[in-house]
Amino acid sequence: MIDPAARFAEAAADHRAGRLAAAEEGYRQILEIRPGQADARRMLGLLAAQQGRPADALAGTAAAVDRPGDPELHIAVAGALKTGGWLLAALAALRRALVLRPDFAEAAYNLGNTEAARGRSDRAVRAYARSLALRPGYSDALNNAGPALLAEGRIGDARRSLMGALALVPGHAGAWSNLAVLHQAGGDAGAAIIRYRRGLAVDPGQSAIHSNLLFTLSYAEAVDDETIYRGFRDWEARHARPLYAEARAHANDRDPERRMRIGYVSADFRDHPVGHNLIASLECHDRTEVEITLYALPRAGDAMTERFRRIADRWRWVGGEDERLIADRIRDDEIDVLVMVAPHTADNRPLVAALKPAPVQVALYDLTTTGMTAVDAWFTDSQIHPPGATAERFAESLVRLPCLVNHAAPSPSPPLVRPPSAATGRITFGSFNNPAKMTPEVIGLWSRVLETVPGSRLLMKFLNRFAGPELGQLLRARFAAHGIAPDRIELRAGRLPRMAQLALLNEVDVALDPFPFNGCTTTFEALWMGVPVVTLEGSRFLGRMSASFLRHLDLGDLVAADKAAYVGLASAVAADLDRRIGLRRDLRDHLLASPLCDASGHARSLVDAYRRLWRGWCLASRNQSVIEAHR
Fold first, then answer.
1. How many CA atoms lie within 13 A of 279 on its CB side?
2. Cα→Cα distances 131→109, 161, 196, 526, Å
3. DSSP structure class, residue 194
4. By the 8 A CB rule, do 330 and 263 touch?
5. How far is the C-alpha of 580 from the C-alpha of 569, rounded, in Å?
6. How confident is residue 64, by pLDDT bands cut at 50, 70 and 90?
7. Domains in the chain, ordered, with CATH?
8. Which of 257-266, 383-392, 509-518 has the lowest mean pLDDT?
9. Whole-angstrom Cα distance, residue 213 to residue 241?
């Protein structure tokens, strides 16, 4: 007679080790004798989703337990499908659960989570409202509704929802973290830092909250480089270093010249700035040199996700798995070089690298040091980190590419037009950056620019963040404190397709870059539409991105060394209509001819860097083997 508990432990061990056929056999044996065993049911659904079988996760799992009318079964299967990235199938399972049990608050809550993962914040808000109507004290629903409401621009409603969660559960670390995000969204980094620290005090093991806290320090002009570096080394000590002891020797073939296996880990294989930075270069990787495996941390699947899928030699959905299981899959795939893409940003999993699943590990598009000695290299370029003149500190070795960032040329793109001031006689400054970057220092400097250029106005847009009145009122009040009338600040709302978003730049004469956290994609898109960007160069990676772009385009005269120079440059460019007309006409062609849009050149530089690092590891590991052999 099978012992269900012992058999489940065996099947789960097979599952963790990647022996999926054996795991499936074990789960099914358990369900033959105990059809209602919830854990086996859930794990079988997870396994089917991981194998890319959403129909099996929905129908086959139900048949296995012979309870297709069980709403809890549909929730379990939906969770597995969401973990595997099959969000539409997960939604179907959750809707079926609600048909079977209309008062099922947990199903409505999970429906909200899944809609949020798809980027459908409006639908997520409605689903959370339904779950709260069914269970008024549902603290997790109140908490998760906060970010969805924020995405809709409903700042006040988001605050009330999060405060409601904290009233019910004062020790709700996630609610403290989301409340910090809310403050940060309004440019109040100081208040955000306080709330992140409250969340971390409640649950010191929350590495993501700790990452967010440190990342928020980067928005504050007063925080120096050393403080940020020490903060990330403390993050390593708390969260990563305890995992270092679990790293194991690698069995990879040590031939330095063979075809390399490159693995990329990211939550942003989708329509996202990081996705736009990565897609064209990946498509140009020399496949005689490298084999590509993409480890996707599930977010909304879209047309670009499918484009990434087509690139990959192997595609792995790993978002619902813990760091150890993800690391095991990477190790089993015998990845030679693991690329952690923007690891400390939203929904990414930097602790995977702490387990050292690949011999060589690099950080790409990370805006700060990872803080981890387990990461071998941080990719950059000579404009962002000038050789011999870099004040920023880091735990990794720097690897300078000819140009760090590559942007896929937007296609289709709106036609280029003359600067709007050519017709109106009035200068429109613009920024489509995250309002989290609109700190008091930024607003103070931009107010000086507006004051220096009489009659000018400022156009701002970021996703749908200005849909509600609260954030707009806050920002206008801050400008008014510097003497800028509210009618000179125009705020646009609405989630737009990229073509329409780019077309808004036809209404901008000069783009103003925030600091100390510059724009990246926003800077590129302004330049693509022929709009000059004025930037204040900082001392850290994230404060030198726009300067790097501009210098690659021979526009270094738009890079200000201090705030007075920034005001002077902005007013001078605003006054030079002939130059702005020329930039509208020529800048897109210059971009296409520059390293910023050279996908094949960028791909070669990445693969060459990977090869150098791989050769170094092969040589070092061979030397170590010789030493050990002579002991």
1. 21
2. 5, 13, 27, 42
3. H
4. yes
5. 13
6. very low
7. 4-221 (1.25.40.10), 244-406+600-623 (3.40.50.11380), 421-596 (3.40.50.2000)
8. 383-392
9. 19
Q: Are 381 and 395 in contact (CB under 8 A)?
A: no
Phi-psi region of 66 (alpha: psi -120 to 50; beta: other; left: phi over 0): left
- Locate 15 and state its tokens: 């599952």
Residue 276 to residue 266: CA distance in whole angstroms: 13
For the segment 575-626, what is each residue's pLDDT rounded down to a tens digit?
Answer: 999 999 999 999 999 999 999 999 999 999 999 999 999 999 999 988 776 6
pLDDT digits (tens, 9 = 90+) for 345-365: 988 999 999 999 999 999 999
Amino acid at 65: V
Q: What is the DSSP letter of 506?
A: G
At residue 119 the predicted structure's pLDDT band, cuts being 50, 70 and 90, is: confident
> Considering the entire predicted model, what is its pTM?
0.88
Starting at the edge strand that comes first in sequence, how are the strands of the sheet with 260-266 ordered?
A: 314-317, 290-296, 260-266, 337-341, 360-364, 377-381, 397-401
Other Cβ atoms closer than 10 A to 424 = 12
H helices within 84-206, ranges in order?
87-100, 105-117, 121-134, 139-151, 155-168, 173-185, 189-202
